Inverse folding.
């Protein structure tokens, strides 16, 4: 790597993972305690640049430090086990665990307003990735993490398979959790921003049920063929029409008909704003959809017809 200050943090991350075994002697572990006077100096499309003082015991020097933005699990640096000599990335600790576990534990208490908060945070994280022309490639509820176990603090993690969206030379072997994989991948297609959007649609559905898509179906070639033929999970009765329509657009069999993450983020943010306006002077129909959806959700919960244990 050269001294180009515009190097993307994802490229640095991928470089370390790819070349770790061959550059052990060239990587220096820097304890975070040696970084002093951290202050922001610039912000780019995908990272925030800080200036800091690196204290190394003999002399102090000014250094530049890049951090990933809100929405993606932070990677603070690298260290090494003194016994095994294994290298380790130092990242944010997700105290609340992953989204799937969170839903299974808290589903009956998660209101539709809560669901909008969660999906807005997830869409912002994916927007951060796509806006820098990267794709995730392994996007599912197990890779969406809660920093503090609260509704508002969700981050996207496990970027080990991420790559530039225009990387036509990459290995396109099928990765990931089967129900979240777009049908074109099973037909030999390439991973893309659109395949991430398909996965996003499945995550939207998981928010409505509390369980993973096709959890009660064996994950085999038969399911793959059904997905290729257009099989999708059944939408619950308490799902607002606007939410259901966006979800179905995300998992459209034709990648070109799927919305972009910019469009999704705008939709979800607007819904969230509208549902927080008690006077509801604009777009009353959408507000009413979510109000009725919350009433149906509570009714289905009481009738024991909605929740992870009734879908899996």
């Amino acid at each position: 790597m050269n001294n180009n200050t515009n190097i993307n943090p994802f490229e640095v991350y991928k470089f370390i993972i790819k070349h770790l075994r061959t550059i052990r002697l060239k990587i220096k572990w820097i304890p975070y305690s040696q970084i002093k006077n951290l202050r922001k100096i610039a912000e780019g499309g995908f990272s925030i640049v800080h200036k800091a003082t690196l204290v190394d015991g003999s002399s102090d020097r000014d250094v530049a430090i890049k951090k990933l933005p809100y929405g993606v699990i932070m990677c603070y640096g690298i260290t090494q086990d003194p016994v095994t000599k294994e290298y380790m990335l130092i990242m944010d600790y997700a105290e609340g665990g992953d989204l799937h576990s969170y839903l299974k534990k808290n589903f009956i208490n998660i209101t539709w307003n809560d669901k909008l908060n969660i999906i807005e945070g997830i869409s912002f994280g994916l927007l951060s990735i796509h806006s820098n022309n990267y794709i995730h490639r392994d996007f599912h509820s197990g890779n969406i993490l809660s920093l503090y176990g609260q509704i508002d603090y969700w981050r996207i993690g496990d970027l080990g398979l991420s790559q530039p969206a225009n990387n036509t030379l990459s290995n396109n072997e099928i990765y990931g959790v089967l129900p979240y994989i777009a049908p074109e991948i099973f037909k030999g297609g390439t991973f893309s921003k659109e395949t991430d959007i398909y996965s996003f649609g499945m995550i939207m559905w998981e928010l409505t049920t509390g369980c993973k898509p096709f959890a009660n179906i064996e994950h085999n070639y038969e399911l793959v063929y059904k997905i290729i033929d257009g099989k999708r999970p059944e939408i619950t009765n308490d799902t607002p029409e606007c939410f259901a329509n966006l979800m179905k657009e995300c998992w459209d069999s034709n990648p070109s008909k799927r919305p972009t993450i910019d469009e999704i983020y705008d939709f979800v943010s607007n819904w969230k704003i509208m549902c927080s306006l008690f006077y509801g002077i604009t777009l009353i129909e959408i507000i009413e959809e979510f109000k009725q959806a919350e009433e149906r959700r509570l009714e289905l919960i009481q009738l024991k017809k909605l929740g992870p244990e009734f879908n899996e």
Summary: Residues 1-9, 19-27 have pLDDT under 50 and may be disordered. The first strand starts at residue 35 and ends at 43. The beta strands are 35-43, 48-55, 60-67, 75-80, 87-91, 97-98, 134-135, 144-146, 154-156, 163-164. The domain at 97-311 is CATH 1.10.510.10 (Transferase(Phosphotransferase); domain 1).
